[in-house]
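Repro case for the chain-ordering regression, as requested:
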Amino acid sequence: MKLTASFFLTAAFMSAQAMGYSQSISFSANNVPLQRLFPVIKQQTGYVVFYNQELLADVKPVTVHAQNQPLAEFLANVLKDQPLNFRIDGKDIIFSRKPMVLIPEAIAAIIKGKVTDENGNPLPGATIRVKGGNATASTDGNGEFTLKNAPANATIIISYIGYKPLEITTDGTSVNVRMEPAAAALAQVMVTGYQSISRERATGAFSTVSNDVLSRRPTSNLSSALQGLVAGMQTKENEDGSMDLLIRGNTSLYGDRRPLVVVDGFPVSTSNFSDINPNDVESVTVLKDAAAASIWGARSANGVIVITTKKSKSAGKLQVDASAFTRISRMADLDQLMTQASSADFVAYEKLAYKNNWVFSPYAGGFSDIINSLTLAQELIYGNRDGLISEQAMNAGLDSLSKINNRGQLRDLLMQRAVLNQYNVSIRSGGERSKTYASIMYENNKGNFQKNSYDRYILNLQNDFRLAKFAEFTIGANLQYRKAETSGATVSELEGLSPYETLLNPDGSYSVNLNTFNREQLKHIPSAKFPYSNWSYNLLQDVRGRRLTNESLNARIQAGLKLRLMKGLTFDSRVQYERNRIDYADYHDESTFYVRSLVNRMTEYNTNTGATGKSYIPKGGILKPHRIGDKDVSRSDVESFLLRNQFNFDRSFRRRHAVSAIAGMEISQYTTNTLASPYAYGYSADKLQATVPPYGYGGSLSPITDFTGYPTTIAGANPVFGWQKDKYVSFYSNASYTYNYRYSISGSIRSDASNFITDNPRLRWSPLWSLGAKWNLKEEDFVNRHKNIDRLELRLTYGKNGNVERSTSTQALLNVGSSLNTSTGTITASVANNGNPGLRWEKTTTTNLGIDYAFFGNKLFGSVDVYNKVGDGIIGNIALPAATGTTLQKFNNAGITNRGIEVSLGANVQIPHTPVRYSTTVTYAYNRNRINSLYNPLLYTYQILDGAFVEGRPVNSLYSFSYAGMINGVPHVVGPKGAPFSFNDVSLYNTALGLPFLNYEGTTTPPHTLGWVNTFQVKNFTLTAIFTGKMGGVFRNQTFYYPTMVGSGKLSVNRWVKDVMNGDPNIPGFARPNEPKLYLWDRYAPFLSSLVESSSYIECKELTLEYALSRKVANAIHLANAKAFIQSRDLGLIWAANKNRYNPDWLPGTNRPLQTYTIGVNLQF
Amino acid sequence: MKMKKTAWIMAAAIALAGCKKYLAEEPNKQVSIKTVSQLEALVDNAPLFAYETNQTASFSTDDYEISRDLYRLNPGAFSFNSLQYYINSVDGVASLASDDLWNGEYKKIFTANLVLDNIDKVTGDDATRARVKADAHFIRAMSYWTLANYYCAPYAEANLQSLGLPLKKTIEYTESLQRATLKETYDFILADIAEAENVAYDEVDPRRAWRVSKKAIAAFRSRYFLFTGDYPKAVQQADLALQSSVVQLVDFKTIKPGVSRNYSNPAATLQYSELFTWSAQNFLYWKEMYYSRYTYNRSWYAPSASLINSYDAANDLRYKLLFIPNGGREFSIVTPATTRYTFFNTGYYAPAGFTRAEVLLNKAEALARQGNAGGAMDAVNILRASRLVNYTPLTANGKDDAIKQVLAERRRELPFTMRWYDIRRFSVNEYTGDEISVVRDFYNMTATGIDVNTPKTYTLDAKRMLVPINTVEINSSNGQILQNPY
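-- result from build under test --
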């Protein structure tokens, strides 16, 4: 049994069984009815006999003489000649009819043996039966069994819940077997983080992913190992291969949609799994419905992911596990990474655009054009126009540009093969009084861009001490240090280069990459008089000249004390402290364009006299905070503290009544501190020197102008601080009752309060609760009769979960500036939120009906769940009359429903006549998401296209324009009242209410998800193939965006220009000459309905081949276990509904995870 | 068993410890309103209050004109929305997606109400408290005054019982939004002004012209009394304001040339004044301002021929610096060559607050309407001296000529920003020689587009001088807010 978190429950269970086998009976009688024995058994042993009256009809009277005979032996003796079998289940003795198979005495044999778990620990209570016969036995406390009445050379089947059944043909010698844990669906306990509930009693919907599966998916981030394994958990992949998880659909509009992540009973503040060593994870339990998750109260509406880490289990043995793997990625595909047109198409479009005068602001060749960067082709075109070069030279130049392809250089100089190495060692040891688990992991990673890398160390220590018979103490620490560099080029920087701009000239010098400045105009100013005479840009030079780093340190310390107060009653006091600090530093040395152009631009210049004046920024490198979103961050520091006190009660009464209950309270607080340091100008890393801008930072108090004469300010004058503290107080209780193993009911209640919820106690303390019931049909005779049914359980639950939305408050909130406003020279504030006087927790009510089943000797198993999640009081932006001060305010006034079905089906079969064992798990889920109430008629077209929330539609709905074709050379969409509306007028896009004329296309969150895990085992080889699929969603294809030639930044032309050149009638064609409003077309063009396609696809996610050294060989080289594996991940799409065979999650222009090859070993000493 | 006992005590102590006290700590600093300095930071956020996005002022008056040719050749240069204002459509304007002026002013009113709601509850020094309170009252008064002059009937005895504004006095969502009468609206504005005056500083703070002062209140009153026809009081208040030693006329001869922009096809070089590049950090300190208010319009102010012709093109610096011939749209020039009016920051912002220039014109007009032609011309000439090269004083021949000359100067000095106000009040005042008719020679415009083959003439009528309230607003108020009668 590998139930670390349920240690005590397990212990209690084991001792009860051991006790049972030590019970014995003394009784003598001749020819008495069998029924007479039952009160005697009960009196002497406490065991109760269950039987069906019909069964006893054929029973003969018995004669028995027993003196201190063990119960099992006594029963076997009594029933020897009767048509009855018995089975001991807990404290119950259950009779059943004996199949009429007679074994000749002569060939009957006794089979003895021992059953252990995967780690060699005895497995008490395993069932052994003869295949095709009726002899059965179970293992005792030492895992040993004796099976009588078995035919010689019988095939026996050994089964144990949670483990794969084994078939063994005996040869007369004793049988020693080691059981392998079964796949997820058969796992055994529901770990909620507060308690572990045995599967038989758990009423909630949950999925467990066991170590057996996780250990076959080597990974850097646990979330990527969970993909495809849990029905109802939707995944969205990130660039680093980690996953954003969504359980049973979106339940919130503005609140957190991520599940709560709990590690060893405590929620962790980073819910992206980044500070968890995946090798330390023993199992992952995903709590999905109200009965399972509601114990987490106000943070459980998105589901809860409970991670249990490995602990030392066995006493006396020292066990060392070591593993290592190397993952090598394919070289990045620049066609995937970039959307740019080929050089030939690019130049062709530029010629066309010039010919047709498609300009935003025409290039006129004056000083005002100095920050109007052209492209190399445009330099030639305008050079010819302005008489600087001949037409012949221009054509020759354009011709040669259209033949250059910079991608080879980009690949060689900026990119690399991504490589990840991970090494992990863990040690388990323990004695009678103390146990230790320790692990250390080191990982280093090179990204697919040069100069992107990290090193990561995780140290984990878990100690359990048994202080006294009634007291146990545990303490654990998890420390992570990660140092990363992110100086590499970015996709947008690559896209910033024209496809004919190389990085290096043939002679090895930096080639010209045009950026910001117009070279023709630079010639007319005395550029050498500026601080840096070199105004040129080169991407490679910038990448080489910068060093962007971050360092993070994470510590998580947990301690707990457990006291046994009386039989069945324990008290737990646990505390967790967590600290997560990240420091960022972005350094650009003075060789970079970033520094040179900034310093030059912040220099006074008189266009009339050509004189330069003050230079507002000192020369030298710049050290500055990192930009995250719209904020500068130098340091982020999250500190959390949680204390929990809990009573646990777990006891059975009169054999049939099992009661388990917990009650407790916890308080917690989460403090976030952020800092953006002032920029260090004139910084030199080797001298550790910096200077401040000598004339101030600009603004109304000391106005400064840049070299074009415009007023400006210098960034980074002040440190900027951020602070937030969330506090929670919670009381909770949970109880379950099981009658006679058949019927269970459970209930939970929890009340949370926080400092950011209104202090009105009615709203602040609103309790969240759940009820659940379970019927174990297998215990019913009418089901038990069917040998092919191994498990059949019905679950029904109902309850409420909460969610947190932090952006509103009962009172109006301000946003107060942290430094002087450059316009007013004062501290300024604005109203951040007008206030939501009735703010309360968002509540989601879930009803869940589930069936768990296993048939044919556990060969086929799984579960089906149907749920209805109704969120009300969800915070939504509700339309108000503007006279109230705002047109939109967030109130607890919206509703969201999620309905769905989840099916998980597993099979585990030996393929006949082959040595192949095949096991498979298919998980399928459907989720229908709707915002069923949200009063907001004031949705502008652009907001809807941006994914605004629309009443009656799913959370991630996608809308489009109907294309009405070209009218007089200008494309039109269908606007209000069906009338065509011109691309040249943005008012339809910006300020029209869009719902009446936009088309609803579907949802971008695919409602159908599929995961399929296949394992083939042939002798020592195991092949695992994992497929995932998403169906029923839609996505938008990219398209051409009709750029204008000059004036709105350097021109970029994407590859879809080809579609326009080819005259695709579903998208706008090229504009007529002199079209002045071409620059507005990209407001409409990307949103045409013709670009929307189904996003359904199925991909092969992983293929792993593992070789386990046979035990004999392993032992010979002093290893307990040895495995080696090779794996390939992200093998590609098997099927995609869209015509381009894109992976809709990773459209062109995204830095998607590439196919990787992994090789690794696991050793156990 | 000692440990057991400790555990029990620990559990009990924690459970009993006041959760309420634990939860009383604020989740964020500076976010909940606690101090006077936070409220002061609110009223110091000039961009929150000083800008007025005002389509009516920009497009609905006779200062703006789109010639038929200009539209026909450049239909894409004008947005559908601004054209609804241009032809002064009732349904077209009411059914636009939103109304920036209405929404913006009510947001200011909310902020002022938020300040007033908290001002007596927060900690801090009392001098600052009193000053911030004055600011909040004045902000609210200004917004109601602006709204009343667009959405309600012009101020006249006959109109006092007509529909005024929904008067929001608190931050409660549940407060009634029914429109008060015009009289109640003006009474509320006057009460706020009186409240502001009780505590206001006397002189304009040159570094914070967005904070109210008694001089700013006097400037406001000179406008207020001029609009209500109380000319002696208008002169009296103007004189009070003109005593300011901080607020001065800017001599336009000192405004420097700014950057030039080159265009090709057709080729043109546009020469802007330095004001063209001024951003808030400069123009908030325009020293003519008693109180910071700017009309904001991202579109193009296309000045009408009559406005352009009203200037002495050779000598009037207002014309030479602010009217960019062939200025066209922001990014390109158009055919036929069309002038662009620009004040601050690419021409997006134009002063709409009380400037020394406006106060002089208020005084001049009030004097002229009382028959004091000489006094009126003196006031006007003070202004003209700072606006013209080769300045020669104006003289007037009697009351009618004085009124005519003063109003002409007023139009030249305050185009776009004051014109709508003036059109409205001239339509109801007792003097009949000053009515302005706004006539558009344009094309037939329907809900779906403009038919350039069907010319149509639009004339602004008295009813449409009340800007229609947006339909979305009326609907989301559940009918509490009534539309103006048309």
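Ordering looks correct now. Chain A has 21 helices and 61 strands.
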